[in-house]
Amino acid sequence: PGEPVLISWDDANTFFHEFGHALHFLSSNVKYPTLNSGVRDYTEFHSQLLERWLSTDKVINQFLKHHETGNAMPPALVAKIKKAATFNQGFETTEFLASALMDMKFHLADPQHLDPDKFEKETLTALKMPKEVVMRHRSPHFTHVFSGEGYATGYYGYLWADVLTADAAEAFAEAPGGFYDKEVAARLVKYLYAPRNATDPAEAYRQFRGRDATIDALMRDRGFPVPAPKKNKS
Ligand SMILES: [Zn+2]
Known about the structure:
Blueprint (H helix, E strand, L loop, with lengths): L8 H18 L16 H9 L5 H7 L11 H10 L4 H20 L7 H11 L30 H18 L7 H12 L7 H9 L6 H6 L13
Helix pairs in contact: 1-2, 2-7, 5-6, 8-9
The structure holds zinc ion.
């Protein structure tokens, strides 16, 4: 009691994440919002996108203040946090993808006489899995695969939500007003938040972005050498 309640970077991120779920729900203009939710590879996108505002200058300077000095988080520390975000991403992306692809391969395989151990080995070899990296979840404990309809072949969904998040974040980053661009924000609410899942997510995303999401933005985010898109001079 009497001690200040300090918030870690992770906690702050979680606040923004959960607030994203709240905004998604509160923006709803469909008649039955709870009936228009729950697409596994889509619902985490709205919340993950909101996390991107945490590291914008406005939020840093207004809210991320030291509890004793009242000073905003110093730019050097912010730069460090951003730089650390790409640490080990090659490894993490590969180990995740191995599990996500195995999940799909198991569901495509003929279960009769299937030897899971052998199947895992053969599949990973066919995928050219680097031997230095192991799967995030090896098959014997990878409960997502057959735990129920919600997760069956759904493990990729976490990564797909990241693809959408990174691509949508670039729409803001490229806009004249950046993350506070009113026009992009209005499109975000109109096409991606308000309809919930009443519009097919792929179509809703196209309405927002003018094209399908590509993996390039996520690759850049994670530090892979994918060049930034050329700005259209119009
Ligand atoms: Zn969430």
